[in-house]
């Protein structure tokens, strides 16, 4: 008993250390995000802009980077957390909003909404994206559950990838008929946090907060689901309700994020795996750490995009794709999914 208590204490201390380290890295990345860009700025201009002054070009540049930094933090946290939720729901190491087709489902819904129904407001974008993400999540899960063995990780991944490809083609088909919106839709599809404003943040924030709260409330339920449906039911867990509640949180997060930033891939795949290696599989720790590490990863990718192509910049969706594609191949090989 004393040995078990010592192990628990050591594990808790380790997690607190990692939490402090992640927060320190996050603060450093936020400072870098407001300081680094096409225009070089001094620390005096940064402090003046943080105080609300925009008297010089440098101060105005910093003022524009502040909402962009906040958007990167929120979007990264949302994608990292939704990826952890999806992997927990499906017990699938390959699950992520991009690979399961959820992001592309939200994209198709927005493309249809803009082209056929003329939606223009950010609030309408978010609702349409959430509906598209929810429909796609259900569709992929149903397709992946067909046949022998139910919803296996391989079948879900293949169903998600096939759905993503099909929906991407449909997005192109919808946009081709509307040359007036084609440029904007294509640029949005790349995925990025540039052009963020406090007005857009205020619109998306309630959806993200709701998604965060619902997701965090499912941590214990996901721990039960990790034991298997039968054992979870034996412990008194209402499996279908637990899975639906967790899925709702993930859909709110990735749908709202996709509506504002476009479909950003691989963050929800990379972050939960990294967090499991560092912090363990307990979702009470895994979910908040996934949110923090996701925020750090997307902010870092945004900074890297500005540095790589300076004085121009690469959208964050391109940077995460460069990082995520090799990581996906590594996971497939590590999990020995030979049928691929």
From TrEMBL:
CDD domains linked to this entry: TM_ABC_iron-siderophores_like
Primary residence: membrane
Membrane-spanning parts: 16-36, 69-86, 98-119, 125-144, 156-177, 197-219, 240-265, 285-304, 316-333
Gene3D superfamilies reported in the protein's UniProt record: ABC transporter involved in vitamin B12 uptake, BtuC
Entry keyword set: Cell membrane, Membrane, Transmembrane, Transmembrane helix, Transport
Gene Ontology MF terms: transmembrane transporter activity
Presence of keyword Transferase: no
Signal peptide: none
Entry membrane topology: Multi-pass membrane protein
GO CC field: plasma membrane
Compartments, as annotated in UniProt: Cell membrane
InterPro entries: ABC_BtuC-like (IPR037294), ABC_transptr_permease_BtuC (IPR000522)
GO biological process: siderophore-iron import into cell
Similarity remark: Belongs to the binding-protein-dependent transport system permease family. FecCD subfamily.
Listed PANTHER family: FE(3+) DICITRATE TRANSPORT SYSTEM PERMEASE PROTEIN FECC-RELATED, FERRIC ENTEROBACTIN TRANSPORT SYSTEM PERMEASE PROTEIN
Name of the featured protein: Iron complex transport system permease protein
């Amino acid at each position: 008993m004393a040995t078990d208590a010592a192990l628990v204490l050591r594990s808790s201390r380790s997690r607190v250390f990692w939490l402090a380290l992640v927060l320190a890295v996050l603060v450093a990345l936020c400072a870098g995000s407001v300081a680094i860009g096409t225009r070089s700025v001094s620390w005096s201009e940064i402090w003046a802009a943080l105080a609300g002054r925009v008297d010089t070009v440098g101060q105005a540049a910093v003022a524009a980077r502040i909402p962009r930094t906040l958007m990167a933090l929120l979007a990264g946290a949302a994608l990292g957390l939704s990826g952890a939720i999806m992997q927990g729901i499906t017990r699938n190491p390959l699950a992520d909003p991009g690979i399961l087709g959820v992001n592309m489902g939200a994209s198709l819904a927005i493309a249809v909404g803009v082209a056929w129904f003329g939606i223009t407001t950010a609030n309408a974008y978010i609702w349409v994206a959430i509906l598209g993400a929810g429909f796609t999540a259900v569709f992929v899960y149903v397709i992946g559950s067909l046949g022998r063995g139910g919803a296996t990780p391989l079948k879900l991944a293949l169903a998600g990838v096939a759905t993503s490809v099909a929906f991407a083609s449909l997005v192109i088909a919808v946009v081709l008929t509307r040359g007036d919106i084609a440029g904007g839709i294509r640029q949005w599809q790349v995925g990025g946090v540039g052009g963020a404003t406090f007005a857009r943040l205020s619109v998306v924030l309630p959806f993200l907060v709701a998604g965060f709260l619902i997701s965090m409330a499912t941590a214990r339920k996901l721990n039960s689901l990790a034991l298997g449906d039968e054992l979870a039911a034996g412990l008194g867990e209402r499996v279908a309700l637990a899975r639906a509640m967790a899925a709702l949180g993930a859909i709110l997060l990735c749908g709202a994020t996709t509506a504002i930033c476009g479909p950003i891939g691989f963050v929800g795949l990379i972050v939960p795996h990294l967090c499991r290696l560092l912090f363990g599989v307990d979702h009470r720790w895994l979910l908040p750490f996934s949110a923090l590490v996701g925020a750090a990863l997307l902010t870092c990718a945004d900074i890297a995009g500005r540095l790589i192509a300076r004085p121009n910049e690469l959208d964050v969706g391109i940077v995460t794709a460069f990082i995520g594609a090799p990581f996906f191949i590594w996971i497939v090989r590590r999990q020995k999914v030979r049928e691929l």
